[in-house]
Structure to design on (390 residues):
């Protein structure tokens, strides 16, 4: 009787052989993959309406009540609407609850229309703002698809084609501007040279 | 302390003219499908994840590094984020991927049930720390080097090396104890 030498597999062999799923040579599958490559490349997903902002929007990234330097002017401890700290509350996609605030702090269009602005915010339910701002920030980073639900109604500018915003804090700031300044400007028909926000939000997205 | 100008939102885009991106994506798409199919249940969900990945890749193609090796790492970095999002939320069905879902059903060689030793090794890998699981999968299932894995996971190569060595030693110890591999 012939002796057989049984060689045990090496660790590397075992690890490589543990691959859960190995594609076979299914021609139809490969064809479907290539069709998907072409369709995603050419289809409607790439259509984006864009609007360039011509107005300079500033968010001094300091805590509320802090010292902010904007466009060469000092804004000291006097948010424009001290009675209107807007609560920004949201839950991230990892389940983290975040709570912070934002406040309109300046900009001629808001200063000149302060009564209307205060009335505008006082008459609104501000509780959904935080989650909406968060969802739109995710869109700006390319993390989720833009839909009417996660895009501010007055603003259709979404970066794309390589211009996704990689800095999450920056994306969050932009979303704050979209929802709190640009929407307000559009809704109230404000004219002027931009606006300013102060916020203690860190822009946590995950 | 100074503010920053929100209007200046442009992200720098490397020159990607030197590689043929459509050809690269077409070449890598089957491997990306396999990457997803190895990690999701049901396997057909891999079709949707590939669709989502491709949509992002085409949108961001000017960000793709201009050499093939790094471009490939970049693709897997996107795929990893798509997979991570998928695991956190219910999948959004991608209509474009519907045909591929059908083709994927029953396709490929599913090792999940046909080899008890392979299944045992997979369960040991599944017991590792989540990051170590990613490292082992990318090395042994996708064939990446440790340096490449570090790029995909945005980790330092030295960290990936040490985590890989530690995970490997743990697996070796267990498999030697069970007599599945020989001692060195």
């Amino acid at each position: 009787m012939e002796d057989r030498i049984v060689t045990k597999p090496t660790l590397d062999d075992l690890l490589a052989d543990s691959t859960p799923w190995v594609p076979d040579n299914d021609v139809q599958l490969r064809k479907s993959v290539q069709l998907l490559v072409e369709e995603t490349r050419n289809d409607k997903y790439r259509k984006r309406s864009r609007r360039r902002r011509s107005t300079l929007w500033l968010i001094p990234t300091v805590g509320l009540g802090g010292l902010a330097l904007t466009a060469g002017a000092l804004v000291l401890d006097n948010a424009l609407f001290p009675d209107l700290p807007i609560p920004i509350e949201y839950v991230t996609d990892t389940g983290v609850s975040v709570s912070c605030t934002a406040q309109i702090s300046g900009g001629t269009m808001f200063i000149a229309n302060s009564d209307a602005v205060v009335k505008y915010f006082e008459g609104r339910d501000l509780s959904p703002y935080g989650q909406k701002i968060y969802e739109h920030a995710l869109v700006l980073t390319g993390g989720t698809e833009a839909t009417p639900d996660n895009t501010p109604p007055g603003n259709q500018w979404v970066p794309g084609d390589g211009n996704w915003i990689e800095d999450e804090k920056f994306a969050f700031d932009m979303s704050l501007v979209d929802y709190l300044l640009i929407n307000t400007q559009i809704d109230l028909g404000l004219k002027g040279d931009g606006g300013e926000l102060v916020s203690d939000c860190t822009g946590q997205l995950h | 302390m100074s503010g920053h100008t929100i209007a200046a939102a442009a992200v720098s885009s490397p020159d990607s003219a030197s590689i043929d991106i459509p050809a690269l994506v077409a070449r890598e798409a089957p491997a990306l499908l396999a990457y997803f199919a190895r990690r999701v249940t049901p396997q057909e969900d891999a079709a949707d994840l590939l669709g989502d990945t491709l949509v992002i890749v085409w949108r961001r193609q000017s960000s793709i590094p201009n050499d093939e090796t790094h471009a490939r790492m970049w693709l897997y970095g996107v795929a990893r984020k798509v997979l991570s999002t998928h695991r956190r939320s219910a999948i959004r069905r991608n209509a474009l991927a519907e045909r591929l879902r059908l083709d994927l059903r029953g396709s490929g060689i599913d090792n999940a049930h046909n080899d008890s030793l392979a299944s045992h090794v997979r369960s040991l890998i599944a017991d590792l720390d989540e990051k170590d699981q990613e490292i082992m999968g990318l090395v042994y299932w996708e064939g990446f080097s440790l340096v490449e894995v570090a790029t995909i996971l945005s980790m330092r190569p030295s960290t990936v090396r040490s985590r890989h060595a530690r995970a490997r030693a743990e697996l070796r110890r267990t498999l030697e104890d069970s007599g599945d591999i020989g001692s060195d």
Summary: Strands of chain A lie at 21-22, 58-59, 67-70, 73-76, 86-91, 97-106, 196-199. Chain A touches chain B through 66 residues (CB under 8 Å).
